[in-house]
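Case study B.
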Amino acid sequence: MTVFTPSRPVRRAAYRPSIELVPEILAGNVAAIARMITRAEAGYPEAVPALAEIYRHSGKAHVVGITGVPGAGKSTLVSSLIRAFGSEGRKVGVVAVDPSSPFSGGAILGDRVRMSEAASSSQAFVRSMATRGQLGGLARSTLQAVDVLDAAGYSPIIIETVGVGQDEVEVVTAAHSIVVLSAPGLGDDIQAIKAGILEIADIHAVSKSDKPEAAATVSALRGMMTLGSERAQSKWSPPVLPVSAVSGERIGELKDAISRHWAHLRESGELADRQRGICRTRILGAAKHLFQGKFDARAGEIGEHIQAVVNRDMDPAGAARLLLGWTDEGQAT
Amino acid sequence: MSEANMTEQVAGDAPDRDAMTGTIRVLVAKLGLDGHDRGAKVVARILRDAGMEVVYTGLYKSPDEVVAAAVQEDVDVIGVSLLSGSHVPLFRELGRCLREQKADHIFVVAGGVIPEQDYAALWDSGVDAIVPQEARAELIVTTVRNLIAARGRV
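Model:
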């Protein structure tokens, strides 16, 4: 049993510095966009200045988060939305997140299976991304990928989270507009008044509306909405939209609701609040990542602190403060 | 080849060697009118368990769709499983699309039912490795790793 692989002259494509890719990304070059996202994911130090430059060119796109339980139909819905926005001549960017294996680190990224035609059109850029150990429904570099697509002129940019449970709501501090997709036939109206994922929706969509059970899910969600929401101070009232990718039913309405929410955010001034929230989370996330890197790189020094904590000479929080250089007791909790 | 060795070689061209331990990304594709994807799914699972990120395209894809997806996903390898007998024209078209879209740094690995008398034709179309259907999991994994190790990161 052998592999047929006779020697071919080795193709050594040159490594192009990231900063050289920036002008190509701004001009919309698909290969350059794709390569930069790879480097952001890998966390190459060489790519850091280029990503900073790209960030300066971003900030124009409408970022839409789509979340929901596994199998709700998120990828199928994204495919329909690519077509719907595409018919308005808009270039749609998609970052679709799927889980990494906690054991091998590998992943099966299957979101493209549901979006083939739409994803292959020149009007769309679809990137599958593995969580690489990140919890919360997104990957660490999801928003860097969004920056790259934003700088390249894609809008809207849709973030499709992993199939979530009840509590993975990280997308709320990543996107401007949140669509929560519920599948019919899962749970009763008590599910609808629980805390968590349903609370974060700017728009509720109910998938598979061609199925008879969908009406009950729609009415449970509408019932929940009448009880008011945490975001009651906002003039925006989240609509509940049954959609069917099979029949194409009301996909246009969902697209319009997404556009309306974007207009609402800009006109009401709520956009500024959301942007501050997103930036705050990103700074904190970057700080945690940097600290993690420092922690991993200084094994010797950390080892001494670990021993001190083992010996009960120091407590864990005290060691952490010391490592952060926060000697003032009052600064950290 | 150990994981450490591979990383070392993969890092060859890069400016900062220590950081260049990028995850291998593979696009597993089904081309043309071939509805049998059990093998493709098994291979996807094998590569996943070897720590790679595997984008699966689903059935009935055309060569240009597969190449467009591979470019957006920035994969290192396209793995195509074919059992329909139409491998010669489909791989010829795949190779043409890769060159046309300036994506021929991406390796092509063929699997499925490929008779030996067609190996040369596939080779001429730009296929880099043909994995026989009786191949064991390790052979598939090392084939992919060896190809990338020889190329370096891009």
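The two ends of chain A are 61 Å apart (CA to CA). The remaining cases will be described in the next quarterly update.
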